[in-house]
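for the recovery benchmark. tokens below, seq after
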């Protein structure tokens, strides 16, 4: 087994490694946890986990839902892109908690329900409940008193004392806050619609919001009409309520990624006609389907086959065999088309080159990607990006970080991990947690503040 204490030199250990992440620590950790995974092997990790209380870092996780985040809201029939074992977190074997759900060596992927249940149980098994504040909505993250003249935003009043601020809190006892402390404001939703505000002070803040908060929009006329949606969950809801069935007008799906494919599968499996619109050619090498092995992802290759074989041009040449009602076949693709507008009478105008077409639809799903929503930061956090002149994009303009500590290069004591820094898979975002933990442990040790008796979970030691 490999000895690996968390506060080691991650830069030295990461040298020479290559993988599917641009962050070297993510590649290092993945290499230790899943040796040769990209070559199709499933070798056991070369690590064993051991709790080391002297490495405990006090922390609090604020989440808008239960642990597992967006996995709780995903459509239940979907399967993960990653193998289930790649979704595993340190110290708790994924298969032990999902016994009996394995689908076979060739297709050991997981459902959102299995993953969300695993993450929720993980928190309990690791004794981390006290570190999680569920149903918490952050509305503001900002630094306090950058200089001695700044006013302190608090429920009491503040005075400068030896370069620090003395805060008079509710119980009358003063607390010393160092220069540049972070204040995190928000509210927790309890007992239905009741909101309880909170204000938390922290020396360090980690941004781990993922990428699914703000759906990308077409920015065309009529996109705000009530029959236009931007989430596959709305399709599932319409199907379950019976407002959408095999007798409905076609569903319009816009996009050529996996979310659009999931929507097409959902509609197809419920016998709902589909009009699938996307800008790229069907043989475009950039299509995600060309990067997925057929044996592991048969359902996505089924959609790709439909995209290639049941195009609108092909359907037009077979007009003589179309039913008298004029209804579309179950699926029709429109490659190299774009949406011009949505009309109030539930019609959609499509264009390819100089040709326009108008179709009546029952529902439109615009699934062309998502963006992180960092509204709680100054300028929506845009100043943190690689290119500060453009909005943050997980694929094209991630947050700029130090490669081994994951600290934002433009804001000290602010860290980022996961999709915000380009790591869109669980197997790689764990490296971000390692880099951040290692950095904080080194700083706490330097200040002599590492807690010898951590109590509960959260300690980190690898051997």
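predicted aa per position
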């Amino acid at each position: 087994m490999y000895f690996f204490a968390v506060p080691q030199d991650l830069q030295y250990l990461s040298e020479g490694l290559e993988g599917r992440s641009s962050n070297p620590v993510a590649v290092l950790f993945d290499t230790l946890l899943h040796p040769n995974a990209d070559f199709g092997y499933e070798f056991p990790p070369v690590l064993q986990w051991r709790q080391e209380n002297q490495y405990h870092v006090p922390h609090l996780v604020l989440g808008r839902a239960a642990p597992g985040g967006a996995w709780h809201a995903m459509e239940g029939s979907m399967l993960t892109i990653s193998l289930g074992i790649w979704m595993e977190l340190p110290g708790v074997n994924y298969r032990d908690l999902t016994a009996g759900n394995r689908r076979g060596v060739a297709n050991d992927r997981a459902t959102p329900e299995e993953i969300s249940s695993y993450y929720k149980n993980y928190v309990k098994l690791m004794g981390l409940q006290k570190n999680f504040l569920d149903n918490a909505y952050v509305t503001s993250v900002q630094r306090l008193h950058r200089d001695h003249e700044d006013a302190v935003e608090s429920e009491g009043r503040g005075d400068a004392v030896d370069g620090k601020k003395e805060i008079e809190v509710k119980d009358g006892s003063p607390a010393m806050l160092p220069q540049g402390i972070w204040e995190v404001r928000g509210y927790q939703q309890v007992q239905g619609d009741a909101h309880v505000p909170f204000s938390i002070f922290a020396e360090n803040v980690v941004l781990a919001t993922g990428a699914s908060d703000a759906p990308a929009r077409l920015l065309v006329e009529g996109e705000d009409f009530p029959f236009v949606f931007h989430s596959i969950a709305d399709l599932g809801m319409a199907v379950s309520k019976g407002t959408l069935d095999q007798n409905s007008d076609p569903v319009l799906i816009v996009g050529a990624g996996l979310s659009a494919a999931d929507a097409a599968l959902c509609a197809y499996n419920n016998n709902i006609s589909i009009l699938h619109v996307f800008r790229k050619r069907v043989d475009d090498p950039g299509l995600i389907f060309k990067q997925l092995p057929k044996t592991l992802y048969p359902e996505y290759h089924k959609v790709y086959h439909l995209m290639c074989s049941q195009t609108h041009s092909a359907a037009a040449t077979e007009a003589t065999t179309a039913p008298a009602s004029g209804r579309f076949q179950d699926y029709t693709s429109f490659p190299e088309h774009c949406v011009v507008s949505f009309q109030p009478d539930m019609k959609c105008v499509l264009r390819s080159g100089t040709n326009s077409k108008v179709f009546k639809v029952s529902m439109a799903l615009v699934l062309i990607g998502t963006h992180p929503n960092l509204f709680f930061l100054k300028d929506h956090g845009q100043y943190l990006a690689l290119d500060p002149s453009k909005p943050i994009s997980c694929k094209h303009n991630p947050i700029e970080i130090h490669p081994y500590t994951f600290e934002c290069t433009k804001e000290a004591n602010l860290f980022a991990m996961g999709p915000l820094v380009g790591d869109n898979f669980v197997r790689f975002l764990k490296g971000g947690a390692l880099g951040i933990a290692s950095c904080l442990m080194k700083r706490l040790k330097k200040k002599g503040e590492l807690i010898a008796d951590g109590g509960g979970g959260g300690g980190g030691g690898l051997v």
